[in-house]
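Example 3.2
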Amino acid sequence: QTTFVTGLSVVPLKEIANGSSLTNATRQVIQAIAIAILATVLVSTLSPQIAAMQQNFLDTPVTPGSAPIAVCGPVSSGTGGTSILPSAESALLAQACQQNIAGFESAYKITFYAAIAALGMGLLLPGWPFKWAGRRGADEPPIG
């Protein structure tokens, strides 16, 4: 929010409505692009076999009373600790877990570096640590 306030502080009062709508539209477009990039990074870490398995799970209707299947947790029936899946499918679920975690790690690295870049750009904005003319500085005619 402080970035938007700083950006709008140099806009003349009669143009605040236009500046505010431009700021909001830009924010929404950038957020949509960022979500698409992060989702692409997350999905790109999955092997085709795991992606097909996940799609199969999504397409299968849930029957009432069936035990939930956790991707990154122990897969047991709850009584006696016996596995409800064959060992091959349990191994696939473990592989899916590792690939999902790797995808989230990659996505979080990208957001971390983007946040550092945004911090650096934020330090270049007018105002602190330099002198700032204030809100009324935008309404005054230029000197000279």
